[in-house]
Amino acid sequence: MTLQELSQQKIIILDGAMGTMIQRYKLEESDFRGNRFAHHQSDLKGNNDLLCITRPDIIEEIHYQYLQAGADIIETNTFNAQRISLADYHMEELAYELNVAAAACARKAVDRYQKENPNATRKFIAGAVGPTNRTASLSPDVNDPGFRAITYDQLVEAYSEQIKGLLDGGVDALLIETIFDTLNAKAALYAAMEICEERGVDVPLMISGTITDASGRTLSGQTSEAFFVSMSHAPLFSIGFNCALGAEQLEQYVQVLSKHADCCVSAYPNAGLPNAMGHYDQTPDQMAALVKSYCEKGIVNILGGCCGTTPDHIRSISNIASHYQPRKTAINA
């Protein structure tokens, strides 16, 4: 079964937060370093992607828990696994290896799950491609609005390296996510399409932007409609929004995409808005009750969770979504 075929049968369930789950393990600096990086020049705690090499057992187990909870797609632990973000830890040269290792962790979890559940629907792995910690559209210096900390070509080069690692590791799709700057995303899309063309492969491309606040715009200033139009030149399997907002606040923007998109529409909001301590208090049942509206209105094909969500959240979302048909698209009309 392909993702396209699955999208005709049901609302596809995406997994939840990786960082939230990693925090539960109360890891120390030594967990991130392992033996290989014991003498690395900088602190490594917080470099969650590195755990695919130093603690692959934990990453595999988190993936497995999401599969057990009902996820049809799990995302690789590679949100910052390109050399631009890895430079913060002086680990730029590890980018390709990290992505291969992350895909291997996800594949082991899928193989384990499907061996234990031979009659289950096929599970998929999406290679997670994050936004980097730079923006190509805005200056980080208020005194020099023309300055850019990164160029388009540099982004393409970094994304190409990451995507090659993900594909070589065996992912089933590419998810360019948490997009706050569409120019960054265009660089990732260009890299993905160029590499797929060179290799003669057809990998589903998934896009997910983020609305940064109540203005209803991305950080680089685009409305939902503008975001869709600027991405629509690519042969997308899905487009949607994630992060920044909870399900209640995000719904209106997902509706806009649903109105215009001829591909699948995705949504994986946070577990509500963070409290004063930066924690997410929304329970699985509360979040599921909110995303039920997405299902009733028929505006989504893919549902999951972002910051603060756990396997329990995904299980509740999966249970709710199972009672509804997916949004009609050119793919499943």
3D architecture notes:
This protein has 333 residues and is an alpha/beta fold. The protein contains 13 helices and eight strands. The chain has one domain: TIM Barrel. Helices cover 43% and strands 12% of the residues. An eight-stranded parallel sheet has the order 1-8-7-6-5-4-3-2. Helix 7 packs parallel to helix 8 and helix 12 runs parallel beside helix 13. The longest helix has 22 residues. The protein is globular and about 55 Å long. The two termini are 18 Å apart. The relative contact order is 0.14.
Q: What is the percent of helical residues?
A: 40-55%
Major pleated sheet:
8 strands, parallel
Specify the overall morphology. Answer: globular
Distance between the termini: 18 Å
At the fold tier of CATH, the topology name is: TIM Barrel
CATH homologous superfamily caption: Homocysteine-binding-like domain
Specify the number of helices. 13
Query: How many β-strands, per DSSP?
Result: 8
Q: Could you list the spans in which at least 5 consecutive residues all have pLDDT below 50?
A: none
Order of helices and strands: HEHHHHEHHEHEHEHEHEHEH
Mean pLDDT, as a whole number? 96
Question: Would you state the CATH class?
Answer: Alpha Beta
Under the CATH scheme, which architecture would be assigned?
Alpha-Beta Barrel
Number of domains: 1
The assigned structural class equals: alpha/beta
* Radius of gyration based on Cα positions: 19 Å
Strand fraction equals: 5-15%
Record keyword descriptors for this entry.
333 residues, alpha/beta, TIM Barrel, 8-stranded parallel β-sheet, 13 helices
